[in-house]
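[job 0412] stage=fold_complex status=start
inputs:
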Amino acid sequence: MDILLLKLTAVVYLFATGSFLTYVFLLKDSVSKLSPWILFCGFAVHTLALTIRFFQTGFAGIVEFREALSFFAWLMVAGYLLVQLKYRLTVLGSIIAPLAFLMTLAAFAFGADPGELPPGLQSFWLPVHVTLAFLGNAAFALAFGVSLIYLLQEHHLKHKKMTSLMKRFPSLESLDRLNYVLLVWGFPLMTLGILSGSLWAGTHWGNYWSWDPRQISSGIAWLFYGALLHGRITAGLRGRKAALLTMFGFCVVLSYFLLGDQVFPSRHGGTFE
Amino acid sequence: MKPASKDIVIVGMNHRSAPIEIRESVAFEDSYVREALGRLHGYPSIQEGVILSTCNRVEVIASVSDASAAFNEIKSFLTQQRAHRGPANLEDHVYTFCGADAVRHLFRVAASLDSMVVGEPQILGQLKGYYDAAQQAGTVGAILHRLFHRSFSVAKRVRTETGIASRAVSVSSVAVDLARRIFDRFDDKTVMLIGAGKMGDLMARHLQRNGVHSLMVTNRTFERALELAAKIHGSPILFEDFPRYLKMADLVIGCASAAEILVDAETVEKVLRERKQRAMFFIDIGDRRNFDPRINELDNVYLYNIDDLKGVAEENLSERSSEATKAEEIISEEVQNFGRWINGLEQVPTITALRQRFEDIRRKEMEKSLKGSLRELSEQQRQALEDMTAAMVNKMLHGPIARLKGNDEGEDNDETLYVAALKRLFDLEEK
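[job 0412] stage=fold_complex status=done
writing structure:
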């Protein structure tokens, strides 16, 4: 049942993607209000799928890689819908919707059986830690999208190329501010994610910090984003450079999320066990 | 013998024919226009002349005795204008119009069809300003007087009868539109206006209408800055001090007539550090370039000059094409009307001279006969003879004069041809 719903989610996300791209590239204003609603429908179906999954197995479906992907997409879409509510940044949807679609689609490429939760992960820390960490990363994913739009807008302005596409983009000032807001949200969430992970490790592995590859990599990412936030607050780091660093940071986090555990085997549970 | 002596010619360059570097090197400073008009008037074939010099165009409109001689004279006049800026071949950038084409061009300019931003209303005011200047300098006569007043009313017709103006975006609006892509809101932004050029003034007002509260004005002559600041509710700043205030400005408009770079990239780099990299928008809107082009290479700074704004303006080209066709039709009609008037200028004296000539012959022959062989005629008979000869002359002239007046709406050129022919056939040129 939940698998069927998940497939439906992917389909709705695909529709949302089409709608957003129609809005941005074919300049159809009529779909500007519709697109976020389609995405919201996808989100609702997605929520239902995750809820059913939770009640079927009794634990949150966030352990296996495919589940993690799906859960991450869900958080990201939720984050986008919140941003849309406050900032009316419909154009960001054209980045988030396809990402969400690809993530849910990719989820099917990996094992389908929920199975049993490994005993080591049977802890209340699991949903707390994963949700916090993923929320932080979802904020960074959104910041990545915002930065991408910033760079496009900036490029157009610098090179004096005026396309009607530009009219879809918000001002640089608001993009930069939103980028900052997302960083301000993402960084504490990431901090809490690492903290909760460390506490969990303390109770489970016996010590809070054991220089595990996953711990080291999150530590590095944390330092990077911390430095970025610090630069923004104190040193007037903004605009193009900030956008580039935001994108770079997320690429590193993402690639570690996708490949890290294969390159540096870790005791860290979940995704790749 | 030369053909019709009253030709209208235009020699000039605009945003399409010449890049800004060339245009600004030929541009006339306001204070210098009067003197330049005098110099222009000094050329032998120039009878009347008006100089038009805006950000987007430099043109000389003249009524001349010989078009081809006038073209050369005006070109050398323009070349002389930029002589101190080193040699450059203006020939590649200059367009020339003569007769009806010149009339059409001026009408199109006035109606803002030739503008960088089609339909923008500023050009008409500028045209009026330069016409007034020429009038004060005494270089305008009957022909240009008529031509310019016609062009003003053509512009008005185009504005009221087509949708060009309502859809038009002025250069200022294009700049405001760009500023909106950089800044979210204007009410917390500060504008600095450098120089007291007309475009800068308009630009600042436009920004104010869009929500800017804080405005600084500086000019090399502080009185002008004071004057302008009072007019647009800004705060005047001493010219020497403006670099110190630059860090407070989010939008900087350059419209000084000085032909030098007033703000260079190094200054802006320093200013940016002081304002923690908050974005700045430089708009170089004057005839001369005031801002270092390298400014645009810095992060978080955007520099647009008048040519860049042109590119943006192209955006709304497609929208207005049908309205433009309508406007072009109005202009064609008006060009024809004006053509008729200017031909009439030739015809009326020709017709009068022709009548006069026939009348003179009639009178001379009558007198000769009445003093000679017809001496014995009674008063009544004399009167009859008088009436008969007068009627004869009238009947003979009726056909040619009707044709000359162009009553038989045939080909347009015929009338001027007849004028020339009659002048030669009856030796009407003297006097």
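[job 0412] summary: The mean pLDDT of chain B is 84.
[job 0412] exit 0
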